[in-house]
Amino acid sequence: MSIIEFEIDEVRKLCENVVPNSKIIACTAAAPAPFIRVDIHENQFYRQLTACLRFPNDYPKEAVLIELKSKTLSDKFLQGLTSVCEKQLQQEFLGKPQCLKVLKFLQQYVQDNPLCVCFDEIQQLRKDLGPEATADQLKLKQKASAIHFTAKGGEYYYRLKAVVPDDYPQHCVELQQQETNLPAILLRYLNGQSREIARQCVEPPLRMPKGKTIADFQPVPSLYRALKFCLEATRGFHMEECPICGQLVLPRNPNDLEKDENKDSYVERVYCGHLFHQGCLKLYLSEPPFPKGGKLCPAKRRHLRSDATYYMGGMQGSKMPKILPDEGGACGIRLAHDRWVVNVKVAESRWAQKQARQRELEEVVDFLK
């Protein structure tokens, strides 16, 4: 019996016992191309691959030839894993039986690296962070199946932990431990919107597009989409200008942020996405004209991250058109905010009362002269 026949027989007898979660698909010593094909299912969802092992002419002095395939793991990850495995063979196993060792190594690697299911997303996040990013902005915790991510913009940061579930991407990432030195209103916005983006990746909309059913909906990976949003939003906040006064909304130094919500320099965010100084927003809403339906945002262009995309008809399956960023012209979206719900008649009445008081004061001053 040749060494190849011996090893194939050994794999046939022992593989499914010594390599956890493995299943032999083919195992043949027939000439001229003996080969072994084994499925490795680390879990029932997405950490699965198929290993095909072929024997070179000078085996075992030469390393067994490895081909990896998977319907769920990315090609780039499989290429990297193949290279790592080949290097391991060259260093430790030449001249010895190799097949069971290769299969055990592959199974152990996939088990120890659960984040392999989002390999491409992690690589893209590294690229988006750029060469100037520090090591602590993207940390992988394989044992916890978690990613610690920090987005930075100027002197501001937003930090969170993204936990990848076992059945990813069937279920979305869980975003935890968010912290920031941005204003509280922006922390709430980042938390809420990133979770909503992740949710929409895995849950069908209440109203499907015409001609589609819920059965047509397929979950998509949510890690990159959610963290990319956090990255871009955090990068942009410190550069945004108040549409009323034209000054930067956030102070350059986070220590100078106004925390008293009654002060004019307190930061407010409205549904169109723009940031305002509270004092500027109050003044703009309290002065005429008071158009029917309420005032529109005076910003020079629409915001890239407008809530209008979600609250005003942009969700998948809605009959209303999606509101997209505009390269020119005013924002034009109605100003709306939980704390600033004032109808036109009330605004006009308040303005008239303010003007009446001003006239009375002027008459008193004139009389005293």
Automatic annotation (TrEMBL):
<dbReference type="InterPro" id="IPR016135">
    <property type="entry name" value="UBQ-conjugating_enzyme/RWD"/>
</dbReference>
<keyword id="KW-0862">Zinc</keyword>
<keyword id="KW-0479">Metal-binding</keyword>
<dbReference type="Pfam" id="PF05773">
    <property type="entry name" value="RWD"/>
</dbReference>
<feature type="domain" description="RING-type">
    <location>
        <begin position="242"/>
        <end position="301"/>
    </location>
</feature>
<feature type="domain" description="RWD">
    <location>
        <begin position="9"/>
        <end position="113"/>
    </location>
</feature>
<dbReference type="InterPro" id="IPR006575">
    <property type="entry name" value="RWD_dom"/>
</dbReference>
<protein>
    <submittedName>
        <fullName>Uncharacterized protein LOC101897073</fullName>
    </submittedName>
</protein>
<dbReference type="GO" id="GO:0008270">
    <property type="term" value="F:zinc ion binding"/>
</dbReference>
<dbReference type="InterPro" id="IPR001841">
    <property type="entry name" value="Znf_RING"/>
</dbReference>
<keyword id="KW-0863">Zinc-finger</keyword>
<dbReference type="InterPro" id="IPR013083">
    <property type="entry name" value="Znf_RING/FYVE/PHD"/>
</dbReference>
